[in-house]
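Here is one record:
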Amino acid sequence: MPGTGREWTFDGVSYRIIAASDVSTRDGFGYELWESGGRDLLLEAFWDDTTGLFTFTAHTGKPLPFRLVEAFIENAAAGVPPTT
């Protein structure tokens, strides 16, 4: 369960967005979208420093509103890759 991040409300539903660097199993930076309360990881957008690829992964089998996914990707794209 994520302990940091910021609340993000979409269509009246609360979520949490976590921005994190990963250097243990991968080398890069990503955004994660969690259900409110940190119960389930829903989506991840990840910038891989070694390949330069920006990828997207859905971590749920639940149907998600298209506009939610689109808004998350737009939000992540604005901050990934991180600028210094």
In short: Helices lie at 66-79. The longest strand covers residues 13-22. The chain has a mean pLDDT of 86.
